[in-house]
Amino acid sequence: MAKRDYYEVLGVARGASEADIKKAYRRLARKLHPDVNPGDKNAQKKFQEIQEAYDVLKEDEKRRAYDRFGHAGTSAGFDPSAAGFGTGATGFGGGAPFESFQFESADLGDLFGDLFGRARAARGGPSRGEDTAGSIEIPFRDAVLGGTASLSLRREKPCPQCGGSGRAGRVVCPTCHGQGMVAESESIKIRIPEGTEDGARIRVPGKGFPGESGGGQGDLYVSVRVLPHPYFERHGDDIHGVVPITVKEAYAGAEIEVPTVHGERRSKIPPGAQGRQKFRLRGQGVKNPRTGQVGDHIYTVRIMVPRGVTPAGLDAATLLDSLYEEPVRKDLPKGL
Ligand SMILES: [Zn+2]
Question: Looking at residues 264-287, what average pLDDT do you find?
Fold first, then answer.
């Protein structure tokens, strides 16, 4: 298959500005990133294609070589000065530039973090900083009742030692090892709204990247994973749990204490309760953060039978057995 034109791949005009190219790339990368399209070979191919196009068009030198010589001008080992490229440029930094498609291991956060990092280099008037993304795991209880969590955000900033040049006099800067950038981490407190669901995204205003020329900070989007609870299970706005009861409680009915996410609640079990029967405590579930409505607590009873067998117990059980109105297994299907 013939290689497509890089401008065509990104859907931009040949004279497109650096900012337009970046914008087009980001839009496509978000749509075609393998994390968004797991197992989609076609999306993967397209993603590689836009990545390759962007790697060339984002850099002045490579872009000029491409404009002049087409795809041949971007192949590894191509020497633009030898090809009459009159800028004294010396190759493209060695190595094949298009082999580094390591997106399988990079998650969306990394990809976009990197994109946002590059976006900071955009020139021009005041512009708002780019958004960034992170993720946290929170306990079940905090998700249901609300709480706070903290997230350590790592970002790159120009090395304070060398001012970003990567050099200290004649030697490599010892602080950033020549990178020009150093990592800095900031701990960010995040308010968890009551009723937060697993997979929810929380926006933290002003914790994205700083803007350019006095533009405001971008926002931080935190995706939330809610850790499972050993006892409670959430289904929508309802909470489910299992409550053991005695044979007598099931037979005669009882008033019992039922644990809910809001504490113990008294609940009545009617006489003749059956094993695995479900009961509902209204308004004892989760408050929906969007509608404000509160779900229910639903518990399933589990009838416990004494393990120790005694003559008196056998008498009582025999008596109970005589009380069934009909055979307990009469509704089982026959001849399966
Ligand atoms: Zn440095």
Answer: 97
* Entry pTM: 0.57
Q: How far is the CA of 167 from the centre of ligand 1 (A)?
A: 6
CA of 158 to the centre of ligand 1 (A): 8
Sorted by sequence, the CB contacts under 8 Å of residue 222 that are 6+ apart come out as 133, 134, 135, 136, 151, 190, 201, 202, 203, 204
In this prediction, residue 81 carries a pLDDT of 43
Ligand 1 centre and the CA of 168: distance in Å? 7
Query: 228: helix, coil or strand?
Result: coil
CA of 274 to the centre of ligand 1 (A): 72
Distance 169 CA to ligand 1 centre (A): 11
Ligand 1 centroid distance, CA of 114 (Å): 20
CA of 172 to the centre of ligand 1 (A): 8
Taking the centre of ligand 1 as the mean of its atom positions, its distance from the CA of residue 122, in whole angstroms, is 22
Among candidates 122, 115, 123, which has minimal Cα distance to 33? 115
Q: What is the C-alpha separation between 108 and 118, in angstroms, rounded?
A: 15
User: What rounded mean pLDDT belongs to the chain?
Assistant: 82
- Tens-place pLDDT, residues 307-324: 999 999 999 999 999 999
> What whole-number distance in Å separates Cα of residue 184 and Cα of residue 195?
33
The three-state secondary structure class of 18 is helix
Note residues around ion ligand 1 (Cβ under 5 angstroms).
159, 161-162, 173, 175-176
Highest averaged pLDDT of the listed ranges 82-86, 130-134, 239-243, 332-336: 239-243
- Structural Rg of the chain based on CA atoms: 32
Separation of CA 154 and ligand 1 centre (Å): 17
**Cα of 28 vs its chain's centroid, Å:** 19
DSSP 268-286: EEPTT--TT-EEEETT-SP
Q: Which residue's entry shows tokens 């800095």?
A: 184
Q: How far is the CA of 182 from the centre of ligand 1 (A)?
A: 7
What is the phi/psi pair of residue 224, to 5°?
A: -110, 130
